[in-house]
Specification:
CATH topology of the largest domain: TolA/TonB C-terminal domain
CATH superfamily of the largest domain: TonB
CATH architecture of the largest domain: 2-Layer Sandwich
Largest sheet: 9 strands, mixed
Radius of gyration: 25 Å
Number of strands: 17
Number of domains: 2
Helix content: 10-25%
Distance between the termini: 83 Å
């Protein structure tokens, strides 16, 4: 006979998928986290699939944030007692509820018999906008320090432009994603160093008014 055990599951799972919208003008990532409450069982439940039909209205209205839910993974292989305890608007609650109702899993077991397990579930929505997306305003650059011209090229009097692709975060942080130029790499480095010092106001979604993350190209013109 299997020895009875008390198991406290703090296992969390993060599943990430990316969806493009309007010719890649917007990328939305969905992250799913779940954990199990204390139960009396020999085998934990196994989640085999979760698929949400994310509403277009939520995409268009720039929904971001975390939906929180509780539910029970039933001994019959079906989810029940689904409760949304922290909502997201524009149909996200209904879409996630429907997905949880259709959740495919293997029940926990005690001495070989299926048993119910309470579960906590987080559905996190994050959006990243391209420069071409008309649903958001562009980041407003407040301070754009000039790059330092590489001294080794002063005598040659090289001129040219360097384009830096930057991800402007809602919290005021910056991430350089890439550089486009035909200049020597010293110029690229100088442009990246200058870009890292940019101060800006974040992009905002025109409908939700929330600050959002957006990619934007910043150009530097080098002259000796």
């Amino acid at each position: 006979m299997l020895k009875q055990r008390i198991l406290f599951y703090t296992i969390s799972l993060c599943l990430i998928s990316f969806f493009s919208h309007f010719a890649k003008a917007q990328e939305i990532s969905f992250n799913y986290y779940y954990s199990f409450e204390r139960v009396e069982a020999d085998e934990p439940p196994k989640i085999n699939g979760f698929d949400v039909n994310y509403p277009d209205t939520a995409r268009k209205n720039g929904v971001q944030g975390t939906l929180k839910a509780t539910l029970t993974l039933g001994e019959n292989g079906k989810a029940r007692d689904i409760k949304i305890i922290q909502s997201l608007p524009f149909g996200v609650d209904d879409a996630v509820t429907q997905a949880l109702q259709n959740l495919y899993f293997q029940p926990a077991k005690l001495r070989g018999q299926p048993v119910p397990v309470p579960m906590n579930f987080d559905f996190v929505v994050s959006a990243l906008y391209e420069e071409t997306d008309k649903n958001v305003t562009k980041p407003k650059i407040i301070e754009k320090p000039l790059p330092i011209y590489p001294s080794k090229y002063v005598a040659e009097k090289l001129k040219g432009k360097v384009q830096v692709l930057i991800l402007f975060y809602p919290d005021g942080k910056i991430e350089v994603l890439g550089v486009n130029s035909v200049m020597p790499r010293e110029f690229d480095k100088a442009a990246v160093e200058a870009a890292a010092k940019i101060r800006f106001q974040p992009a905002a979604h025109k409908k939700s008014k929330a600050d959002v993350a957006q990619k934007m190209t910043v150009e530097y013109d080098f002259k000796p």
